[in-house]
């Protein structure tokens, strides 16, 4: 499948690498067409690089792996025409750093994922993978035992497409929380995740949902 990954940080590169390893045709996108990190990554992974618009045009499925407070700008640069009615997997978190503290810039009655969906109404936005470290996203077996990946979105077909990709990463417990309003909770879990990382001293953990089956 052709996949456009918007973002050259650890998440974009890690997801891009996994998808390329699985045989997908991946283009990594940045603000600039000549982003050096993206070019180095593409050369090392037999893939391509471009700006956000190039990567969005390339992908049948698009991953938003951009900094939360830059995501709307990144997606506007990608362009509504290139995003089309494609599946848009939103991995970003609306985290902002001020006064030495991280907080959420969109919260409670809204979420970044819903803001993206309102801005690009034809896109099929699916929130996924934002509740864990990048290495765990693509290799759940790094964390022993059963643990879960949460997804939500308004389009059942889009969620089925994303679930298949997640299964190919090794995910077995994929919990569909329903429509995109569930992204509020998925993003609001981040303050707990960040405290856990400090308490546990590393980022390789995940949430498991204990329940009667
Ligand atoms: N790090 C993790 O393990 C992790 C886990 C879960 C979720 N997330 C979320 O995933 C996203 C990516 O995280 P990351 O750590 O890989 O990298 P990041 O540093 O948060 O984001 C890097 C990407 O954001 C773009 N960007 C930065 N500021 C921008 C702006 N003002 N306008 C447009 N684009 C801008 C950069 O563009 P250029 O390429 O042009 O520099 C780059 O592609 C974030 O939203 C983060 O909260 C991260």
Structure notes:
With 213 residues, this protein is α/β, with parallel strands linked by helices. It contains ten helices and ten strands. The protein has helices at residues 10-21, 36-44, 52-58, 71-78, 80-83, 112-119, 134-138, 156-169, 183-188, 190-200; strands at 2-6, 25-30, 48-51, 61-64, 87-90, 95-98, 101-104, 124-128, 148-153, 173-176. The strands form two sheets. An eight-stranded mixed β-sheet has the order 3-2-1-4-5-8-9-10, with helices on both faces. A two-stranded antiparallel sheet has the order 6-7. Helix 8 (156-169) links the parallel strand 9 and strand 10. Helix 3 packs across helix 4. The mean pLDDT is 98. Residues 7-12, 30-32, 35, 65-68, 70, 73-74, 91-93, 95, 130, 133-134 line the site of NADP nicotinamide-adenine-dinucleotide phosphate.
Summarize the structure.
With 213 residues, this protein is α/β, with parallel strands linked by helices. 39% of the residues lie in helices and 22% in strands.
């Amino acid at each position: 499948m052709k996949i456009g990954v918007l973002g050259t940080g650890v998440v974009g590169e890690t997801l891009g690498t996994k998808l390329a390893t699985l045989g997908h045709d991946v283009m990594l996108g940045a603000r600039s067409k000549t982003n050096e990190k993206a070019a180095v990554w593409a050369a090392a992974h037999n893939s391509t690089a471009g700006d956000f618009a190039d990567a969005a045009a390339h992908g049948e499925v698009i991953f938003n792996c951009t900094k939360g407070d830059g995501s709307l700008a990144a997606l506007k640069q990608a362009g509504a025409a290139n995003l089309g009615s494609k599946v848009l997997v939103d991995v970003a978190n609306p985290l902002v750093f001020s006064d030495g503290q991280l907080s959420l810039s969109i919260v409670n009655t809204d979420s970044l994922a819903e803001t993206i969906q309102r801005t690009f109404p034809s896109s099929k936005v699916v929130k996924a993978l934002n509740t864990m470290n990048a290495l765990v996203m693509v290799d759940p077996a790094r964390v022993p035992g059963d643990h879960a990946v949460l997804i939500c979105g308004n389009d059942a077909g889009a969620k089925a497409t994303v679930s298949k990709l997640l299964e190919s990463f090794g995910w077995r417990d994929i919990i569909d929380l329903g429509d995109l309003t569930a992204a509020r909770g998925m993003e609001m879990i981040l303050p707990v995740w960040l405290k856990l990382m400090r308490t546990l001293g590393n980022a390789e953990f995940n949430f498991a949902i204990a329940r009667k089956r």
